Amino acid sequence: MNQLTELTIAELSDGFGKKKFSPSEVTKAYIENMAAHREYNAYITETPEEALSAAAEADSRAAGGRRLGKLDGVPLGIKDLFCTKNIRTTAASHILENFIPPYESTVTKKLLDAGAVFLGKTNLDEFAMGGANITSYFGHTVNPNRRKTDNAEVITGGSSGGSAAAVAGKLCAGATGTDTGGSIRQPSSYCGIVGMKPTYGRCSRFGIIAYASSLDQAGPMTRTVEDAAIMLGYMAGFDEKDSTSADTAVPDFTAALNKGVKGMTIGLPKELMEEELNGEISLAWKEGREILEKAGAKFTEISLPNMKYALATYYIIAPAEASSNLARYDGVRFGLRVDGKTLDEMYELTRSAGFGDEVKRRIMIGTYVLSAGYYDAYYLKALEVQKLIRRDYTEAFKTVDAILTPTAPTTAFTVEESKAFDPVTMYLQDAFTVPVNLAGLPGISVPVKTASDGLPIGLHLVGRHFDEETLFSAASVLERR
Fold first, then answer.
1. What stretch of H or E contains 167?
2. Which of 81, 213, 341, 374 is 20 to 30 A away from residue 122, measured at CA?
3. Are 17 and 79 in contact (CB under 8 A)?
4. Which of 28, 70, 79, 110 is catalytic?
5. Contacts 24+ apart (CB under 8 A), 420-428
């Protein structure tokens, strides 16, 4: 039965339509895999009863020839940052450990309306703050891939590490993630799967627990580019409940999969080409270029001169927004409460006990840059640099259709190695992905090869605003070759 968990979303959909197997059979197979691989710690909350009930409904629709679409009956994992009605949603934090939302996020409602089966809520860095999935209150997630040189366990990357591990470990057919500075693409690269961060505004943020509201964006994490195109088609769309949602038509992303790259011009940032990159990452980048060139794409050098300021800019803007967004967790309305003698003491005790070290660090940074005397020097300056970064991309896309870079500067490393890093070293793991969020652009990570240590390497394609189709076309070529 567990052979069913080897199938892609597209293959499952085809099999359901041809009645080769049923949604219930597939769901049971995934539930068995989840039970057999809890060592990955990919899920915070498993929902097998709800999943089997939803699968039974999908069985009935399939039997009657009334399938809702390509996701009907497909088992998915949901990052535990999406509010799910009557199902625990924790953001991987002690402060929300027992929070049960009374409403559904727009993205998950769209997936439910499409007939998807939810297997549970996947692990993440606390409040999506982290790049290794080691800040979760519920323990770190383990990458299903192991380092061959010493058989060591390695991190999944973050913050969507639970979703990445669940997809890579065959614990779901696909999963949702959120990406604020690389949190879909970086763990996808580390785990050897496909991760798509859509244009900011393409998917509704309503019901997603906020980290940095001007940067957060939901997206799919899958085993293939085709599956990512299928999932995004159901996740995307305008939502009047989200003021940042774009009222833009959602195309058939799967139609772009076979268009190829002939006649396409792809840019290579000279700023990255001049850096000393990890040898195997650099080689993968070169091989990716050769694959696309043989398929008909042309390459040209571009300049993104303000890219070097992206991390510093991000770690001012994102913590500033986080300090505001997380102010609501005070023990008064919902979540953890630690009583004190006064209201102020209750706030202090609740937040001290409820938040982990990384979340506290970012709240403090954000509060600092927004404080009197520093607002102009840091926050407003960061907003000005963000405009320059956006302008760089706008200029680049006057001459190119997409941009190709590595997804991450290294392959995955162990938890012990990550703990030895200082925070800035960890932040540098997002150096290639953060600029894309600051510009609000779409990006996709595609696994292209395996390093000598047996760990996956991903390449990163970046496109124009609301031009995910071009990325799917180029990503499909990389994947096939």
1. helix 161-168
2. 213
3. no
4. 79
5. 423/358, 423/361, 426/130, 426/131, 426/132, 427/131, 427/311, 427/315, 428/311
- Catalytic site includes residue 105: no
Cα–Cα separations (whole angstroms), residue 232 to 40, 175, 204, 237: 26, 11, 12, 9
pLDDT band for position 65 (cuts 50, 70, 90): confident
Question: CB-based contacts of 430: which residues, under 8 Å, 6+ apart?
Answer: 131, 181, 182, 186, 311, 314, 408
Does 79 qualify as catalytic in the annotation? yes
User: No. of H helices and E strands in the chain?
Assistant: 17, 13
pTM score of the predicted model? 0.97
* Residues in the chain, overall count: 481
Q: What is the mean pLDDT of residues 332-340?
A: 93
With beta carbons less than 8 A apart as the criterion, state whether 167 and 193 touch: yes
Fold of 2-256: Amidase signature (AS) enzymes (3.90.1300)
Q: To the nearest 10°, the Cα dihedral for 344, 348, 354, 360?
A: 130
Domains in the chain: boundaries: 2-256
Active site residue 18: no
Catalytic residue among 24, 163, 183, 476: 183
pLDDT of residue 198: 98
- The one catalytic residue in 22, 24, 105, 159 is 159
Nearest-10 Cα torsion for 38, 40, 45, 49: -50
CB atoms within 10 A of CB 98: 11
